[in-house]
Write a structure and sequence with these properties.
binds flavin mononucleotide, alpha/beta, TIM Barrel, 8-stranded parallel beta barrel, 4-stranded antiparallel β-sheet
Length: 313
């Protein structure tokens, strides 16, 4: 299926944007737009939106040494957000990317409130459809985002909100115990959507050298092994977000239509894919077809009818 042949039942309104598919290719999957375009059959049109790699105020080389390590049922990664800096992304990358009707979104990274606000401001004056704040790029300390850390997060969302009129998506770190509480803080600060979960902190050790495998030492685990954690947290956040009309992007280990449907039932409005694209660059067309077949089999006319349709035992 291409966007012109995607069934209308897969279309949805996401924060005022028309998505022709509930699938979003997440930050870290497509680089700055040219990673998969040479693969036969690959098309951005299979996704409702794609998110560029994390972008910072100034160019970053990223971490040295190994950045990726295949784990059982997943991927351990620590990239250090290599990117050319926001001005190059806005002035050179974005003008070279015309992928309509698929929406392009920015992913804002930074280690301080000031940097996150400045990058958000610059993307506000660009062609991106929405701006995602990667809260995993801020060091909130080792805690679980309560007290001061929750206040800090609220201040960041509010400050970024004040410099953009584009839909603002807050992407939460994974190490949060009470996701519902943090979602409430983000909503009060003015976010339009919440995206979760980011990779879960992890590590791999080379037993011969007895050193960490990744150059950075600690990394983030993504892929199928984190899906049950993600499903629970998406359900908890959706319970808080839906009454406020705040959208939820569910992610973590999606690699089949069944996985995507599970996230939708848990309460996601759209479903993100990153590691799944590494396994199969043509994954989106298979997932779109599978969701469409499921809707037909269950007598549903639109994917939005699935979102939050979880029944109790
Ligand atoms: C190699 C790699 C790079 C990533 N880079 C970013 C990034 O720059 N910004 C961000 O918000 N998330 C980043 N992520 C996280 C993904 O967007 C996604 O939230 C996470 O991997 C869970 O989804 P998945 O299991 O489908 O991969 C990255 C993930 C991987 C594996």
């Amino acid at each position: 299926m291409t966007s012109s042949t995607l069934p209308p039942s897969l279309g949805l309104n996401f924060c005022g944007l028309n998505f022709h598919s509930p699938l979003i290719l997440l930050s870290g999957s497509i680089g700055f737009g040219n990673e998969y375009t040479r693969i036969e059959g690959f098309s951005y049109q299979e996704a409702g939106a794609v998110v560029l790699n994390g972008t910072t105020r100034h160019a970053r080389r990223g971490y040295s040494g190994h950045r990726l390590n295949e784990a059982s049922m997943g991927l351990l990664s620590a990239t250090g957000w290599p990117n050319p800096g926001v001005d190059v992304v806005v002035n050179e990358v974005l003008p070279s990317l015309d992928i309509q009707p698929t929406h392009l979104c920015a992913n804002v990274c930074g280690e301080t409130l000031e940097n996150l606000v400045e990058v958000t401001r610059r993307f506000n004056d660009s062609s991106v459809s929405a701006i995602e704040l990667n809260m995993a790029s801020i060091d909130f300390g080792a805690g679980t985002l309560t007290g001061d850390a929750a206040d800090q997060l609220t201040r960041i969302v509010a400050a970024c909100r004040s410099v953009t009129i584009k839909p603002l998506i807050t992407k939460l770190p994974a190490h949060v115990d009470d996701m519902g509480l943090i979602a409430r803080h983000c909503i009060e600060a003015g976010t339009d959507a919440i995206s979760l979960i980011n990779p879960v902190a992890g590590m791999a050790i080379n037993i011969e050298s007895r050193k960490p495998v990744l150059g950075h030492g600690i990394g983030g685990l993504s892929g199928p092994s984190i899906k049950p954690i993600a499903i629970l947290k998406v359900m908890q956040v959706a319970e808080v977000a839906r009454p406020h009309g705040v959208a939820v992007i569910g992610q973590g280990g999606v690699r089949s239509a069944e996985d995507a449907i599970e996230f939708l039932i848990a309460g996601a409005d759209a479903v993100g894919i990153c590691t799944g694209l590494y396994y199969d660059p043509l994954i989106c067309q298979k997932i779109n077809s599978g969701i469409d077949a499921y809707l037909k089999r269950h007598g549903l006319t639109n994917v939005a009818q699935l979102s939050g349709s979880l029944q109790s035992n």
